[in-house]
Structures are given as C-alpha cells and as structure tokens.
Amino acid sequence: MAKLPERMMARSGTFYCRIWVPTDIAPIYGRKIVVRSLRTKDLKTAKSRLARKSVELENRFDEIRADQIAGDNLGFAAPPDPRTIRARFSEIAREHAIAASDHEFSRRAALFSQASAAPTRFWRGEFGPLPVPADFGHDVEDAYTYFDHLVAEGDLEKVIAFVNRFRLGKRIKILQGMRATGNLGEFVATAEDRIPGMNRPDAIALGRLLLQDELDALQAIADGQADPSLGDLRASNFRQAENPEAPSLGSSLPPAPTAKPISLDELFERWEAETDPSASTLSSWRGITRDLKSFVGDKADDITRIAAEDIVGWKDKLVKADKAAATISRGYLGCARALFRFAVANRLAASDPSQGIKLTRKMKAGKKMLGYSGEEVARLLDLASNASDPWKKWLPWLAAATGSRIGEVAQLHGGHVFEENGYQVVKIMPASDAGSLKNAESERTVPIHPALLKAGFLEFVAEKGQGPLFYGRSSGDPKRKHASKGVANRLASWIRANGFSDPRKAPNHALRHWFKTEASRVGIPDSVADAIQGHTDSSSSGVYRHIALALMASSLDKIELPPRRGAS
Known about the structure:
The chain has 568 residues and is mainly alpha-helical. It has helices spanning 26-29, 43-73, 82-87, 89-117, 119-123, 140-153, 156-181, 185-194, 200-222, 235-242, 264-275, 279-296, 308-320, 325-345, 374-385, 390-402, 406-410, 450-454, 457-464, 483-497, 509-521, 526-533, 549-556, and strands at 8-11, 14-20, 33-37, 417-420, 423-428, 444-447.
C-alpha cells in the first residue's frame, strides 16, 4: 500500500483519522490521541473524509481552549461548571459507541483474515474458543444444531459469520447483565479517564450512559442495521444523565411494565408451559419453588420485589441446613436462575436477582462419591444373574456393560434393541410413553457387550416383544414421573439390601463410575468412553466428533464382564 497521508492510519483495511491532542488541553480532553473511523476502505473516499474529520476535531480543540482561556481571565482556576461537564456526556458516549462499533467490525475482519489464512488453527480454537452445546443453554437444540450443520457442510465463511454473531451475542448479554445489576465499574473507570477530577455522581451518570450507548451500538449490529454507530443512538439517556435524581451505582432498574404483578407460582406455570420440562425436573423444582416462596414471604406475590439480598439469604439458609453444595448450586440456585431468566426474557421483570450469586464451598475429603471396585461389580453381577425378576437381572448388567444411567436403560423397549451395520445394538432414547433423558447427548446407539449376548439378553428381548422390557405400563403423562423411575428406585433399594451399604457409593450410579474408571484402565480414549456413556464432551473439537459403532464395539471388547475379583 502507498504511503498514507499524515493523520491517516488503516486497521484491517478500514481507514481512520488519527490526531494527537494538543498538550495544553489534553488533561481537559481526557486523552492524548484521538482515533476516529472514516468508515471506508476506499483510499480516495478516505482522503476526502480525513480533511472534514480533521477540521471537526481541531474546532473542538479550539472550543476547549477558548473555555480554558475564559476561566483563566477570571483570575482563578475555577473548576468547570457541572452543567458544562454533563453537556459533554452525549458526545463522549457517542464517541464511545462509535469506537465499540469500529472495534467489533475490526475484530470480525481480523477473525476472517486469520481463519481464511489458517483454517486448521481456526477449527482448533486458536483464534478464540468455538461454541459448544453448554454455551446455548435452552437454545441448544436449535442454535447449536444449526451450527453443527454449518460445520458438517464445511462452509468456512458461514461458520465464521455464525461465530461472529455468537461472540457479539455474548458481549451483549454481559452488558445487559451489568446494566441489570448496576455493575458499572468498567464504565465508571472509563468515564473518570475521559474527564479527570469529575465527581462520583457525574462519573456514575456518564458510566451508565457509556454502557447503554455501547449496548445500543452492538445491538444495532446484531439486528442488522447498516450503520449503527452513526446518528443519535440514545438521546433520551442524556436527559437521564442530567437528572440529579437518576439512580446511582447499585440501584436496580425500574421493572418492566406488566398488566399486574406476577407471582412465583404464576411464573413457574408459565415457565412450565413453555419449556415442557421432564417429570423429574418438574417434581423437584416445584418443591424448590415452594421453599423459595416460604423464605421470601409475601414477596412471592410479586417477583419484581424479590431482590438479590433475598436470594443470598435463601442460599445462606440452605447452607446452614447442611444441604450438599451440588444440590444448592445445581438444584436450588439453578432453578431460581432458570425462572428469573425466563421472566426477564418475557418482560415479566427487568432483572434477575439470582444473577452472579454462587455457592463457594470446597468439597471436603471423604465426601466425594465413589465407584464400585472390580470385586464389588463382580459380586453384584453374580447376584443379578441369580435373580428371577428381569429388572434385577438385566439392569445391573446393562449399566455395567454400557456405563449408562439406570434411568436410561430402565425405560428400554424391545424395539430399542436391533441390528445395525452388522452389530447388535441398543438405542438409548426416551420411551415413547413420555419417557425422558437427561440431555441431548444422552440419546445414542451403543453396541451390546458380548457378555450380554452370551447371557441370553437377545432371547429375553425376543420374549418380551416390542414394548417395555422392565416396567408394565406408564401413564403417558409427561408431567408425572415415568414408571421406569419406580423400577430404578426399587433396584437401588434391592442393591442396598444385599450388602452394598457404603454411603459414598450410590447403589446404581456407582456402576457408571466404575465403567469410566475401567475404560481408562484398559486404554479406551475418553472421547470413545464419553460416546458410549452419553457424557458431554465440551471441548472445542470434541463436539464435532462422531464415534463409529465399530470403534465402540472394539473398545467394549476390552472391558471384561464380570470383572476379575480384585480388578480396578
């Protein structure tokens, strides 16, 4: 590229005006150098815009200098009038929004350039982590499935575009969270850097304006507006910033307008109707919601009255009641987060009072749950082999042979067992009579271990037919617990009653722990073991990997069933 004119620079092909602020006014202006996008990649256009932008900035410098001289002529270094300071807020916020917009487009251009030049490094996540299922929350079945299709198609430009939208969305969510909680530290610091010596209320007011204008600019990009950083982005915010009664740092935003207050019970009903949760989740979260209602009292009649302090107090009560850390974090707080996020998304509340509230407690030695030893698995399978009830006989074998959750195999139907690509397989899937699985990764097809074939599992399936293998009939109501849940609970009680009494070894789930340990011992890669067990592999590369039946079958052959006494 030819040498650029003075005061011009280029970033990722876009031209910018770059001017040093005169030293006599730099302390007042709040920075030593000003960079403004010329919003073009055409050099000829950029040159004509550079002249106009230079004159505009120099005029601004002259205005500041004139204000300073006027103050000096009064014979004292009087501090600027607060109204004069606030009069600059709108301009400063608009500059900040333009810079945020320019940064977003520069970041996109940089990613495209890097990914195009080195696609392999892009797929490895070296230019930033690629999305994984956990990033999408409740949208995983839609957004992530779409992303997975783009990856499968191999269209690099479409994948880059998706990643850009995804990363922009994450920043927008962060800003929305900061606004909802009043976490303005980042923007107050920026405000104080722009206008040194400003009083705290003004710094907070400007910080709020900076946050909102950046959010507006990024949201405009996300919404596909052509030139989001131009024009008046948030004129109404300037009026609010001038208002001395405006809420300060830590204040909550006014609630979103609703026809009437929404109670916790009503919120739960709306969440249930829209998300269609599994029966087990519905049952446990109903109890959690009742517990929260009991704690907050009459605030439960209006969710907008529930504050972060209430959620913290509730969490503290649960800790004092000696609830397990995982139960509090994933169960109680997880339920609250899901409900309040649903409320915010549906304009039933302006903020989520549970946001950012976590339980900080380390796992104590002697508390971690364990898996069975090889000797215990051998003893349990011997016990199962001699049992007459099908659920006692086959469920421990299926769990040991596939590492499955008992609830997954307890709802098997005869139609879930078939031959595929020359292998006898079992399809782990929700039962057709309103069964459910833990998550999307739980649904999978797994080869049947040779030990089960030898023990006559296929003959048992043939006798039972296409219907349920281990339960009689379920209600078919997705809001009631599936009949297979009762089978799983009875199995746990039966195992406990037969001498497996270690409280750190869950009678059913300890088999799943053992399978993972045994797979590692015999050299099965984690990715293959995860595919067999239906575990989520959240690595950037793992989510695109699909394990073939042949590889799973050869891996299962390495696991000896029943294991030798004393093994693992």
